[in-house]
Write a structure and sequence with these properties.
- By secondary structure, this protein is an all-alpha fold.
- Helix content is 70%, strand content 0%.
- The chain contains six helices and no strands.
- It has helices at residues 14-56, 58-61, 66-85, 91-114, 124-128, 138-141.
- The radius of gyration is 25 Å and the shape is elongated.
- The N and C termini lie far apart (75 Å).
């Protein structure tokens, strides 16, 4: 006559839920730091591969000196090798490597575009990430 049906099996108790929320708050800063570190790593990796493919492009090869092309390829390969050997580096280390690579690549790519090679590949400047844009952006044109 007195049967009680409860649906508590497999559910978390209020205390367990509260503990999980506290743990999530506790590790939030660590998760954010890890996300930023991975973002910096991905930026360096993407930039190195994009620059490498840009200077290996047939249209760009003819418009850039062999010495500059070799310098960029060598520096990109060094950055990629450094990435493979330093997967657990800090965000600052990844950012430093990216800035060093940009120091070499941006002036060369900027000279490429100033030399009239803009038709070679409109996305090269965007791939290079150079801040010395002289023309309108895609957003301005649209």
């Amino acid at each position: 006559n007195k049967i009680t049906i409860s649906n508590d099996k497999g559910r978390l108790s209020k205390e367990e839920i509260e503990r999980m929320v506290q743990d999530a708050e506790k590790y939030k800063n660590e998760d954010e730091a890890q996300r930023e570190r991975i973002g910096a790593k991905n930026s360096l990796e993407s930039y190195a591969f994009n620059m490498k493919s840009t200077v290996e492009d047939e249209n760009v090869k003819t418009k850039i000196s062999e010495g500059d092309r070799k310098k960029i390829l060598e520096q990109c390969n060094q950055a990629i090798l450094w990435l493979e050997n330093n997967q657990t580096a800090d965000k600052e280390e990844f950012e430093y490597q990216l800035k060093e690579l940009e120091k070499l690549c941006c002036p060369i790519i900027a000279n490429l575009y100033q030399g009239g090679a803009a038709a070679a590949g409109g996305s090269c400047r965007a791939q290079a990430g150079c801040a010395t844009s002289t023309g309108p952006t895609v957003e301005e044109v649209d």
